[in-house]
Amino acid sequence: MKRAKQTLTHIDEAGRPAMVDVSGKATTARQALAECRVRFPADVAVQLRKSGLRSAKGGIVDTAVIAGTMAVKRTHELIPFCHPLPIDGVRIAIDWHGERELRIECMVKTVHRTGVEMEALTGATVAALTVYDMCKALSHAIVLGPAKLVGKHGGKRDVGKAG
Description:
Oligomer: single chain
CATH class: Alpha Beta
Mean pLDDT: 92
Structural class: alpha+beta
Helix content: 25-40%
Order of helices and strands: EHEEHHEEHEE
CATH architecture: 2-Layer Sandwich
Number of strands: 7
CATH superfamily: Molybdopterin cofactor biosynthesis C (MoaC) domain
């Protein structure tokens, strides 16, 4: 089966940047799941596990969940061609993945004409940045990423696992 040629969607006929016109698309339920990893030096991971992921600034996980949720709702203010969307649901989960790594998942839902992949990626990434901010006093060798789309459902095509 021959695959159709892919084109960039945020470029107009003249090759200039442009917001996609979604006015002709059907309104459907859409959701996306993204993740971002935070890897700590071994001694920092031990210290964080002992503290229950609390720092002098407060609860690391709780603060990251709030920051990620706020970021989801403001994605259109950060990414130039994202549409402002009514966000129907956000779930951010943060758990240890191995001895030294946190996995942050952000699932976003809406009913609209365009998807929420960028919102999910932004939420997961800002939550990871918040973890870094709250832990940087322990080490600047904390590594963020990769950040990736795990899946999306709704719209033209489904990709991966969306929650």
